Task: inverse folding
């Protein structure tokens, strides 16, 4: 127990200030504002991999690490679309995931928004449309925000979450 | 592997390691596999291709690995309704590869199980995407498949379907559990949801452009795939990458191993209810990714390895920082390991959970870290080393118990081993006698050649088989993920465990859906 506590104390708090978007407005302040006023201090996101190479998932998982500390903003990834305010979707949408993605979208209560994560999801990735995939998420469900990157960095994902709720 | 008893004369294939190829009849294919199995060979991959445009019908190709290197066995089917021998009695791992070969190429094995594997009603079942006359129709709408899961009958038995959309930020797949109370009697996996037509996509790219796609077959293993693809291209073009490039490739590959193992160690702690593990290891992983960004321009090292060499060199400041990081990380990981080892609750979840016995792992042909955790002492970095691993003397980490604890222990040992290797590599890169060149121009590739690449990624060995077409095009490219061999092992490892332990067991293997589904 002593070793565990020592580890915690010696690590300290590593959470960084939120990345500063181009317009100079701090994301953390805006997230606080938005979450407080529109979403009751909590944003619940359901993540759906619709045929990515799994790199986008690695970067979305990184949002939970102490540096980005996503939950510190009141933002959580949830296990059911029925608990979600938003969907984050990666991949060009494989034909085999299209029905599951549509059902996930339909199961998410209104109002909701969709963030398409990564170059494949916005239709400019190496995984172009073919017999097995659509060309982008917007071909299958309505998309509110697209985040470029192969994969997008955790900071880019954080910025996009804000852009969607603004 | 000696094929002479079969009366076939193999020809050598240019590859990064000793490789031979032989054209075999169906009887010879079976005999070669049986002799290979008895001699300690394992099935690396099996796939098909359409050769009708060259008046050669269809080809099924199996690749075996033993201590002598790789053996490529080619068998020709002159008619599409001809069948090739079922290899599953010898190599159970062949089962899903044979089913996928039918889904994509339309040639079947003489096997009992003819259910589709990668096909989930995304296109008409009688169209085969990897045939050269395949024409997709934009009007095809995704449908729903009625898959014949194996059911367990009996009083109190019920079924739990999970997926394809999973809780948490992970890839899609379906798991069908047959349970009594909390106890799992049987698990059946249904994969293919993330099938993206990667092999067909390769055929529309040039050999040069294929490198980018190879690095995105499974994003968590981008270095392993990019290196295996580069090896395949270099063997086709008959060039050797400069020594500095091979050391930089090994640096990237070991950093990929460290980053993935750190992420898994944190997630495994979290799945066992030890949130501190996730916080600490995810922080260490982020440190590694940020250094990757600074040193190589990409957090996950995508496109760092290119055919002919590497994309950029390492400057002195970043080299020194990587060395300092490695020393610091080694101490932190050792400290966290003792926290895991001494935490009764964590050990209670890890030990005896999800056991994959050595004999089962051996029969299934389980590879990579999951194999080593079940006592299979195999690692390409030692067994079939390419430069610079011939100079690095990697000692594979193994464990005997085959449970979650063993897969955790192997990860800890491998992180520490990779960090030691990284220190050696950084010293070597600072050696002024190492020439500065980091790439070599690629010569023109002749039409109709075969090149192979084979690299021990963090999860296990990754194979890339590349066949050239005219004018620098790709005729056929088959990337093979170690997950093919290891997915069936999870079905065995969960038997008798409780449903609530499945996420922990699944995570302890951490297999790729994308790399498998293609």
Result:
């Amino acid at each position: 127990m002593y070793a565990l506590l020592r580890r915690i104390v010696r690590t300290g708090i590593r959470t960084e200030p939120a990345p500063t978007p181009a317009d100079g407005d701090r994301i953390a302040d805006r997230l606080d504002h938005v979450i407080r006023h529109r979403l009751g201090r909590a944003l619940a996101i359901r993540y759906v991999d619709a045929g990515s190479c799994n790199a986008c998932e690695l970067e979305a998982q990184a949002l939970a690490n102490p540096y980005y500390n996503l939950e510190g903003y009141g933002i959580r990834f949830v296990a059911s679309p029925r608990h979600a305010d938003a969907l984050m979707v990666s991949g060009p949408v494989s034909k085999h995931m299209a029905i599951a993605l549509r059902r996930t979208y339909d199961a998410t209560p209104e109002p909701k928004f969709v963030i398409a994560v990564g170059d494949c999801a916005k239709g400019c990735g190496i995984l172009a449309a073919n017999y097995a995939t659509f060309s982008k998420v917007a071909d299958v469900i309505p998309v509110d925000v697209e985040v470029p990157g192969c994969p997008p960095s955790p900071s880019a994902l954080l910025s996009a979450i804000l852009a969607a709720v603004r | 592997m000696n094929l002479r008893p079969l009366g076939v004369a193999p020809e050598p294939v240019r590859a990064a390691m000793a490789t031979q190829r032989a054209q075999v009849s169906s009887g010879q294919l079976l005999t070669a596999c049986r002799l290979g199995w008895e001699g300690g060979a394992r099935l690396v991959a099996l796939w098909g291709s359409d050769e009708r445009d060259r008046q050669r019908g269809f080809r099924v190709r199996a690749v075996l690995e033993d201590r002598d290197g790789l053996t490529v066995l080619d068998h020709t089917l002159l008619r599409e309704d001809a069948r090739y021998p079922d290899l599953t009695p010898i190599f159970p791992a062949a089962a899903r590869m044979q089913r996928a070969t039918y889904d994509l190429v339309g040639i079947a094995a003489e096997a009992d199980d003819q259910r589709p594997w990668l096909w989930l009603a995304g296109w008409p079942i009688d169209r085969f995407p990897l045939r050269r006359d395949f024409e997709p129709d934009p009007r095809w709408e995704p449908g729903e498949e009625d898959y014949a899961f194996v059911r367990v009958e009996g009083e109190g038995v019920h079924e739990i379907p999970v997926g394809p959309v999973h809780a948490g930020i992970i890839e899609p797949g379906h798991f069908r559990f047959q349970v009594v109370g909390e106890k799992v009697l049987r698990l059946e996996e249904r994969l293919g949801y993330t099938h993206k037509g990667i092999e067909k996509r390769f055929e529309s790219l040039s050999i040069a452009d294929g490198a980018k796609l190879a690095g995105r077959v499974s994003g968590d293993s981008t270095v392993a795939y990019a290196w295996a693809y580069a090896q395949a291209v270099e063997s086709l073009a008959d060039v050797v990458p400069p020594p500095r490039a091979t050391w930089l490739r090994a640096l990237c590959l070991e950093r990929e191993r460290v980053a993935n193992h750190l992420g898994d160690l944190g997630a495994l702690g979290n799945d066992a209810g030890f949130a501190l593990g996730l916080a600490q290891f995810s922080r260490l992983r982020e440190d590694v990714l940020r250094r990757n960004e600074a040193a190589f321009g990409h957090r996950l090292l995508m496109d760092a390895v290119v055919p002919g060499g590497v994309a950029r060199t390492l400057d002195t400041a970043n080299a020194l920082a990587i060395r300092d990081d490695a020393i610091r990380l080694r101490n932190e990981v050792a400290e966290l390991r003792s926290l895991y080892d001494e935490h009764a609750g964590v050990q209670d979840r890890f030990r005896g959970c999800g056991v994959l016995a050595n004999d089962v792992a051996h029969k299934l042909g389980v590879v990579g870290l999951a194999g080593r955790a079940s006592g299979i002492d195999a690692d390409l970095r030692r067994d079939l080393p390419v430069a610079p691993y011939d100079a690095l003397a990697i000692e594979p980490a193994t464990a005997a118990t085959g449970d979650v604890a063993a897969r955790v222990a192997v990860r800890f040992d491998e992180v520490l081993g990779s960090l030691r290797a990284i220190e050696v590599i950084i010293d070597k890169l600072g050696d002024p006698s190492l020439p500065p060149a980091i790439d070599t121009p690629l010569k023109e590739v002749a039409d109709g050649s075969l090149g192979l690449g084979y690299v021990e990624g963090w999860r296990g060995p990754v194979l890339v088989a590349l066949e050239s077409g005219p004018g620098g095009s790709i005729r056929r490219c088959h990337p093979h993920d170690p997950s093919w061999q290891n997915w069936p092992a999870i079905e065995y490892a969960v038997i008798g465990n409780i449903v609530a332990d499945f996420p922990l067991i699944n995570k302890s293997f951490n297999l790729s859906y994308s790399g498998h589904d293609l």
